[in-house]
Structure formats: C-alpha cells, structure tokens
Amino acid sequence: QVQLVESGGGSVQAGGSLRLSCAASESTYSRSCVGWFRQAPGQEREGVAVIGSVGVTSYADSVKGRFTISKDNAKNTLYLQMNSLKPEDTAMYYCAAARICRYGGNWRPEEYNFWGQGTQVTVSS
After folding, report:
1. Opening angle at CA 44, ends 108 and 49, nearest 5
2. Does the pLDDT of residue 104 top 90, yes or no?
3. For 114, which of 23, 45, 90, 94 is 20 to 30 Å away at the CA?
4. What is the pLDDT of residues 46-66, one digit of tens each?
C-alpha cells in the first residue's frame, strides 16, 4: 500500500509563497498520474494541478500562473510551489496518485487510488 505524506503547509499573508511537498513510501510517481487537490470547509474537493502521462502538467484556471506542480522521481516526492497566494487559496491541500493515467492528467478525485492526509494552507488578507 502506497503511503503519501504531505508537508509544507502553514499560514501566510496574501501575496506570500509556500511550497508543499508530498513524499511517497515507495517508487510511485514515475509510473503514476499525480495531482494536488484542495478542499475548503463546506466545499467539494477540487483539483488544483495535475501531472498526466508523459509529464504533461495542467492547472485549474484559478491558480494558473501562480502555482507550479513538479515531481522528483528519484526522491519519490511531489511538489506544489504556490506564489502570489490569495485568501481564496485557503484550504486543506491533498496530494494523490493514480495507477491509471490520462494524457492530460486525472482531474476527478475518484480517479485516484492513493491520498495523503492533507496539509492546511491559510492565507490572510
């Protein structure tokens, strides 16, 4: 069973930056689709950024140009660099990995097999 562990969340002021990390318990990212999702209180979990087959990256419109997803297969670690943070980015952030991969990445939570426990990001105005 693959385990994913997120870190890097915290509280920042609007305009600040954070980098989230997601460490996998085994070599997972080289053969999986991966993604970052977030969920604010009372809202559904939504996709933020994904990496599809052959390394194609995609972003939600709300974070495009501000967030960057990347992975280091040798370190079994997935990253989400978040710049120019806004109060509306406040949420619990989750990393996920999927065995079956779409070219453009998997955007639906039900397409993922493994999830981290989440890390809180809070952005104050």
Report:
1. 45
2. no
3. 90
4. 999 999 988 899 999 999 999
Would you state the structure tokens that stand for residue 32, as one six-digit string? 């999986």
User: How buried is residue 95: exposed, middle or buried, by Cβ count under 10 Å (0-12/13-18/19+)?
Assistant: buried
Proportion of the chain above pLDDT 70, given as a percent? 99
Structure tokens at 57: 């990256």
Closest Cα partner for 67 from 121, 23, 28?
121
Q: What is the token pair recorded at 88? A: 């509306």
Residue 116 and residue 114: Cα distance in Å, rounded?
Answer: 7
- For 86, residues 6+ apart whose C-beta sits below 8 A from its C-beta are 14, 123
CA dihedral 104, 17, 44, 113 (to 10 degrees): 50
Amino acid at 69: I
Element containing residue 93 per DSSP (H, E): strand 91-98
CA distance 81 to 66: 8
Give the torsion sign (CA, 47, 51, 53, 56). positive
